Amino acid sequence: MTQKQTVLVFTATGRTGNSVINGLIESHKFNVVAGIRAASKDKPEVEKLKSRGVVIRIFDKDTFDDSTVEILRGVDVLIVSAGGLTVDTQKQLVDAAKKAGVKRIVSNDWAAPTLRGVHQYYDSKAVVHDYIREVGIGYTFIDVGIWHQIAFQPLEESQEVYPGQFERFTKIYGGGDVKGAFTDLRDIGTFVARIIDDPRTLNHYVFIWGEEATKKQILGIAEKVRGIKIEPTIVSEAETEKQLANARVAGGFPQIMIEYEYSFWVRGDNVIENAKRPEYGGALDARELYPDIKPRRLIDFAQSLYAGSI
C-alpha cells in the first residue's frame, strides 16, 4: 500500500488555506497538517481542524529559522497561503523547507497570470519563484484568477470579502469587453488536492480557472439575478492609465488595486490563453488535467449569494 504524503498548509485558517485544507481532507489521500501562527492557536477554527483529524503545528509567522526546519521535518509538500509575508521571509521559509527535506513547495501565489513589470505584487512573487528554482527544491506555482466571491457586489458593504469590493463593483475599467478568468474559492482545494498528487505538475506552473467572463457579463449576471438595473461608472483606458501613474507615485494598497484592474480589464492578462504562453510561465491548464472536476459557475454563485444562502 502506498504511503500517504504529509502535506502542511501554512497558514490554514485564511480563505485560501481553508479551501485547500478542505480539499485535502475530502480527498482522503493525505496526512494533513495545519501550520498555525502562535496568535491563532486558540481560535475556534483551529479547534475545528483538530476535530477533523488535522495535526496542528505552531509557527512564528515573522521568523523562519532552524526551529522552522524542525517543524517541517517529515513534510512532503508545503503549501504556503499566508498574507503579509515579505520576500525575505518567504526566502527563509524556502530555505527551511529545503533543509527539512520537503519534496515540493507550493508558493504563496493564488492570483492571476501576468508579466513582470505590470504590477509590484506579482513581481515580488516572481522573485520568490526565482529563488525556489535557485535553491533547487521541487515546486508547483498555482494561480486561480479572480474569486467568484469577489466578482460580485455583496448585498451590504459590511459583507465585503475584499476591501473596496462593494464600491468598485460598478466600475468598468477600459471598455468592459475584455475577458477574465474566475474560480470559486471553494473549488480551489479540490483542484489543489489533485495537483500536488500528480507528477505531471512537479516543477510546473498550473492555472486553476472555472469560467471566463467580461466585466459587462458579470454586471449582466448580477442584474438578471437581482432583477435590477445597474448603472456602471466607465473608467476609460486613458483614465485608468492616469490613475495607475498616480497610484504608483503614492504606493501602498491603492497601487496594488489599480495595477490589478489594469492587468485584468485593460491588458487582459487574466485568461487561460495567456497563462499558457511561455512568457507568462507556460501554465498547465487544471481543467485539461482534471476534466472530471466540474467548477462552480458564476451564475450559480450569484444566485446563491443574492438568495442569502452563502
Automatic annotation (TrEMBL):
Pfam families: NmrA (PF05368). Gene3D superfamilies: NAD(P)-binding Rossmann-like Domain (3.40.50.720), UDP-galactose 4-epimerase, domain 1 (3.90.25.10). InterPro entries: NAD(P)-bd_dom_sf (IPR036291), NmrA-like (IPR008030), NmrA/Isoflavone_reductase-like (IPR051609). Keywords: NADP, Oxidoreductase. The keyword Oxidoreductase applies. GO terms for molecular function: oxidoreductase activity. Residues 3-300 form the NmrA-like domain. This is NAD-binding protein.
